[in-house]
Each structure stands twice: as C-alpha cells, then as structure tokens.
Task: structure prediction
Amino acid sequence: MSVYRLNKLIRLAPNMTAGRSTVAMQPQRHNTSHSAQAADTPGHTSFKTLAITTPKPFVFHVELHRPNKLNAINKQMWLEIKDCFEGLSTNPDCRAIVLSASGKHFTAGIDLSDMMNLGQQLSDTDDCARKGYILERVIKLYQDSISALEQCPKPVITAVHQACIGAGVDLITASDIRYCTQDAFFQVKEVEIGMAADVGTLQRLPKAIGSQSLARELCFTGRRFEASEAHSCGLVSRVFPDKESLVTGALALAEQIANKSPIAVQTTKANMVYSLEHTNQEGLDHIRWYNKLNLQSEDFAQAVAAQLTKDDKPIFAKL
Ligand SMILES: CC/C=C\C=C\CC(=O)SCCNC(=O)CCNC(=O)[C@H](O)C(C)(C)COP(=O)(O)OP(=O)(O)OC[C@H]1O[C@@H](n2cnc3c(N)ncnc32)[C@H](O)[C@@H]1OP(=O)(O)O
Result:
C-alpha cells in the first residue's frame, strides 16, 4: 500500500477521546466494540501483522501481531512497520507511540522461513550481479523499515517482553525510549546465523548503551543478555515485573508526552536525533533555526502562561 493511501486511512481514525478506538487493526485481536466498528468502517484497511489501537488521546499503540510465529518479522511485517510509522509521522492525532508485541515473545527476529524464500528467489538467476541487486533492494527496504521509527517525529516507546532477538534489537534501538519486563532477554544474534547485522544495530546499539566495548562484545559473540544487564548498560531505562505493568507504564509515559506541546516534543526529538550524528555546534545551530520559529508559536505562549497560572494541563492545537 502506498504511504499516501495509508496516511489517508490513518487520518480516518475517529477523533481522539479517552477510551479505545481502533484503526487499521486485526479485528479479532481487540474484542472491544470499537474494534468491530472500525473494522466495519468503509475505507478502513487491516494490517495483517500489526494491531493498532488508540487507547488514550493522541496516543497510538502499535503491536507486533504474529503471535503464532513469535512475531518473527516476515516481508509483510517489514513493509507494514514502514507504512505504519510513515503514516503516523503525519497524523495530527498521534503525538506518542507505544510499540509492544502480542503473544509469548516480543520478537524472534527475522522470519527464517522468509529468508529461505529469499534464497529461492536468488536461485532464479545465476548472475551474481543480479543476485546482488535483489539483495540490495531487500536490505534497503528492511533498513528503511527500521529507520522509520527514528525518522518518525513522534516519540516511540518500545515495550519488550521475553525474547527480543536479532532484528528485534535493530528495531528497539531505533526507538526513543525502551522499557522491558524482568523476564525479557536480548540477543544480537546475526553472527550466529552467519551474517553481520545490517539494519541498524551496529550503528545504534553502541550509541544507545554508550559503550563500544560492550556493544562489540554483544555483536561479536551473539551472547544472550537479560533485563538486568540491559538496564544496567542503559539499553532499557525501566524494568517492570510483568507485561501488564510494562504496557501500562509505557502508555502512561506516552500519555504524559502527548499532553505536552507537540511542537516542543517533536522539535526535541528532531534535535536529539540530529545531534547524535553532528557536532555540538551543529546541533546548536540546528535548534536555533527551529526555535526562531517555534518561540513565536502559540504553544510556547500557552505553556508559559500555564506555568505561571499553575494550569497543569494546557490544551495544544493539533500539529
Ligand atoms: C536483510 C536482513 C535483515 C535483518 C536480519 C536480521 C537477522 C536476525 O534477526 S538474526 C535472528 C534470527 N532469529 C533467530 O535465530 C531466533 C531463533 N529462535 C529462538 O531463538 C527461539 O525460538 C526463541 C525466539 C528464543 C523462542 O524460544 P521458544 O519460546 O522456546 O520457542 P521455540 O520452540 O524455539 O520456537 C517455536 C517455533 O517457532 C519457530 N521459530 C523460532 N524463531 C523463528 C524465526 N526467527 N523464524 C521462523 N520461525 C521461528 C521455531 O522453529 C519453532 O517452530 P516449530 O515448527 O514449532 O518447531
């Protein structure tokens, strides 16, 4: 589906009011009346591998949803992740996103059966250059899928339970904030399947944990590590006792973010992502350019007034 069409569909979401409305979802996943309504709405489409709900005003909850396949990421899921986050990027009803997963594990990484299909496709030609072109396109598509989280202007909070393997680590390191359950475990497993990780972990993990030494150890060995180590090295910032409290905590954080000025939050994300790759001076130049506009916005005036009057919930216009 084109990004244009997806944007249009996501924009059809019912107005955000407290409560649960569902867009582009798996009807059987959420047995609320809202799900049925949304599923029946003409023009609504369904993602096959993602379930999307809007549990709080301006908060979208995206779930990896191939529970019977341990949320292994097949081609369809790669495409849908990209479409979904690109669509939410321009959706004015979305200010913060929680990404979690249904079923036993967060994700078993790339779908290995799908990889076998790719092998079949490659065997259709004997020409190594043509095989190379096929692989180039696939890798680029998968990279873009993961990068859609980082490029999405809205903060993305990932909530990991149980296994987060291979491509799962690529995925979560492209998010803004990571939480997990105490039974979560992580593995940069690519070397174990005979490849170098190529969709983001090697670039983002060292920055996320702030240690080249540990990142290289994890990437060279593919050793599994648990929630406690993920927390102590800074890969995740909070650990919850179970999945229910994890998702509740992640949604509460998303709600807190969604109550802030969307201009302030989205500019903050843009500048923090930019500053990861640039010098301090370049980062300062970048934010100065943004803020010479943003400090004239009604959000700024309203937020300052709210501070002075101790109004803890100023209402900001959609962005
Ligand atoms: C261009 C390339 C871009 C990106 C590349 C990314 C690379 C990677 O993602 S590398 C990592 C690949 N994933 C794995 O190696 C995971 C292997 N699986 C496991 O380690 C375990 O299954 C587990 C995730 C820890 C879960 O363990 P458990 O709960 O005990 O379940 P199992 O009994 O092991 O598995 C049940 C069932 O699922 C099948 N399965 C597991 N993982 C995958 C997978 N990634 N793809 C496809 N299928 C998977 C497993 O074979 C079992 O199948 P049965 O038919 O029931 O035997």
Observations:
- DSSP finds 13 helices and ten strands in the chain.
- The chain has two domains: 3-258, 262-309.
- Residues 1-44 have pLDDT under 50 and may be disordered.
